[in-house]
Amino acid sequence: MIYFDNAATTQPYPEALYTYQEVATKIFGNPSSLHSLGDKSTRILEASRRQIAELLGKKQEEIFFTSGGTESDNWAIKGVAFEKARYGKHIIVSDIEHPAVKESATWLKTQGFDISYAPVDKDGFVDVDQLAGLLRPDTILVSIMAVNNEIGSVQPIQKISELLADKPTITFHVDAVQAIGKVPVEVFLTERVDLASFSGHKFHAVRGVGFLYKKSGKKIAPLLTGGGQEKDLRSTTENVAGIAAMAKALRLTLDKAETATVKIAKMREVIRDELLRYEDITVFSGNEQFAPNILTFGIKGVRGEVVVHAFEEHEIYISTTSACSSKAGKPAGTLISMGVSTKSAQTAVRISLDDDNDMSQVEQFLTVFRQIYDKTKKVR
User: Fold this and answer.
1) Considering Cα of 98, then 103, then 104, then 106, what sign does the dihedral take?
2) Angle ∠(306,307,311) on CA atoms, nearest 5
3) What pLDDT score was predicted for residue 322?
4) Crossing angle of helices 359-375/304-312, nearest 10°?
5) Could you give the residue numbers annotated as active site?
6) Residue 378 pLDDT more than 90?
7) Is the pLDDT of residue 238 over 70?
8) Which of 34, 134, 196, 307 is 20 to 30 A off residue 88, Cα-Cα?
9) How sure is the predictor about 276, in pLDDT bands with cuts at 50, 70 and 90?
């Protein structure tokens, strides 16, 4: 089996699974309980929070645990909207955001908020000048993803941070779900970023756990109320075992990120160079300022889902761009925003690599690709 769908989810590290099992079986008390088992859980919870904060170069009190990227995004967008509604109701998101951000913004329209969409250029990068033109006196939030999940374009977070440097009343949120271990932390978590979303299963932790970075002093309304956990901002009994496993996975990921990204980028380069040799192949992912792990391409005239299933027959697993919308059969929204035709966007498939992959798998992938390409000659 060859797994080239790591942007959808990663296989948990054995060390993370071991940590999960140890905590779940031995330190299973509720952190809110007054007895010693509760105290042990609290210590594990706060040690994990401290470790994550240190790894990101942030403060312990700036890390808030969630169930994953979708909740973190929803909380950031809706939480800021309702916290700051009395100051303004204008929100800007990019035109290529993950559905967790875009759908949250769409829902806020029904609550009286005004949403503007920052366009991207033909290569999939947010146009900072056009973003600047969308800013208004009543703008309360700007949300831009760090790494696009469909084609891998690394967004100009530093330039946007500079744009917003003298606008402290605007909250700046970054969806960093696809960024950890792929681009340096300082690239997407600048000093100007107020909120950032993360999801554990994207960096070899278990599913159902993530976190939101919230800069000290920034206010946000809670989505979940009840027990008062997470400083009364996110009520629900904490997933201590999952959180501990996530902290372990984050450390392992960042410890080897420098060498891993070099290896991954080389594999991507080999695949990209080979694909570009074929006449009826469109490569949607560029080379400069793109994440080292994501490569999106299409065979002209062949729908993406056909290609995905053709590879699956050889036990090679890829996807049709975003995993969250692939089963809906929708063309890649990012490609449409880039000006790619619907017909061409429907051919798009995404491979997403990881340090677990190697060149022998790349070679096998390319061998199978040639077979699939030849079989689609009549359609092309």
Assistant:
1) positive
2) 120
3) 59
4) 120
5) 324
6) no
7) yes
8) 196
9) very high
Strand ranges across the sheet with 348-352: 281-283, 294-299, 348-352
- Mean of per-residue pLDDT scores for the chain: 95
CB 171 within 8 A of CB 250: no
Residue 380 pLDDT exceeds 90: no
**pLDDT value of residue 37:** 78
Instruction: List, as one string, the DSSP characters of 10-64.
Output: -PPPHHHHHHHHHHHHHS-S-TT-SSHHHHHHHHHHHHHHHHHHHHHT--GGGEE
Complete DSSP assignment for 84-120: HTTT--EEEEETT--HHHHHHHHHHHTTT-EEEEE-B
Tell me if residue 171 falls in helix, strand or coil: strand
Structure token digits, residue 71: 């909740």
Q: What is the pLDDT of residues 11-53, one digit of tens each?
A: 999 999 999 999 999 999 888 777 887 788 999 999 999 999 9
CA distances from 268 to 116, 262, 274, 337 (A): 34, 10, 10, 24
CB-based contact 222:233 (threshold 8 Å): yes
Contacts of 325 (CB under 8 A, 6+ apart): 99, 333
Q: What is the pLDDT of residues 289-338, one digit of tens each?
A: 999 999 999 999 999 999 999 999 999 999 997 555 555 555 679 999 99
pLDDT > 60? residue 128: yes
Amino acid at the residue 245: A
Strand 139-145, strand 90-94: pairing: parallel
307 membership: H or E segment, kind and range: helix 304-312
d(CA 118, CA 129): 10
For 363-372, which contacts have Cβ atoms below 8 Å and span 24 or more sequence positions?
364/2, 364/316, 365/2, 365/4, 365/271, 365/311, 365/316, 366/270, 366/271, 366/274, 368/311, 368/314, 368/316, 369/274, 369/275, 369/311, 372/299, 372/307, 372/310, 372/311
Q: Which pair of tokens denotes residue 255?
A: 């410890």
| Cβ–Cβ < 8 Å for 238, 228 | no
User: Left if phi > 0, otherwise alpha if psi is -120 to 50, otherwise beta: which for 300?
Assistant: beta
Q: All domains of the chain, ordered by start, with CATH?
A: 2-8+256-377 (3.90.1150.10), 14-251 (3.40.640.10)
